[in-house]
């Protein structure tokens, strides 16, 4: 039963990821993050501090999003990083404060080099993309698509399935994501499915896969 208990933990990670992050009352802050590469909000530092200081801001759920977004942004924009460092003592949440200190001192590439494959890895890359507009982060998510066919490792299956789901969902909402996936379709046939299906179809595939892992565990 240990695998199934771990499955439930991973399942919660999947559904409280970047997509679940866009829930009220957090939606305003989420929109700032998801559109930052298009519209740089000049108050992003103060708005971030206000957000993480809220008692409803759960560190574990938000950690991969914050790491991906601000790790990439700090590496790209020294002005934003320096402004954060100057205001770091305004962060009352100890965990978030330690995280932002770490991000201000660490290159994002070294963080990714040590990050294990998981649904949270996809969240990190989406957040880095939304911070910078750099398609190399989309490429990292695209590389995970084949993992959805994995029938032996639950974490890898979830990594691949959430990659497909998130690429499909964001291509429907973000024109630049759609344009990039379309431009890569000829060299990567798996993107045809991503562009043609609806997110609900990939969500169903994910749920069906989780049930297969559950049934497999119960038989053992």
Describe what you observe in this structure.
- There is one protein chain.
- The chain is mainly alpha-helical and 220 residues long.
- The chain has one domain (2-219).
- It is built from 13 helices and no strands.
- The protein is globular, with a radius of gyration of 18 Å.
- Mean pLDDT is 88; it is low at 11-16 and 18-26.
- Residues 1-22 form the signal peptide.
* Number of individual domains: 1
Question: Would you identify the regions where 5 or more consecutive residues have pLDDT less than 50?
Answer: 11-16, 18-26
Percent of residues in beta strands: under 5%
Average per-residue pLDDT, rounded, comes to 88
Cα Rg:
18 Å
Shape: globular
Estimate the helix proportion, in percent.
over 70%
- Report, as a whole number of angstroms, the end-to-end distance: 9 Å
Number of distinct beta strands: 0
- Total of DSSP H or I helical runs spanning 4+ residues: 13
What is the structural class? mainly alpha
Topology as H/E string? HHHHHHHHHHHHH
For the biggest sheet, the summary is: none
Keywords: Signal
Signal peptide: 1-22
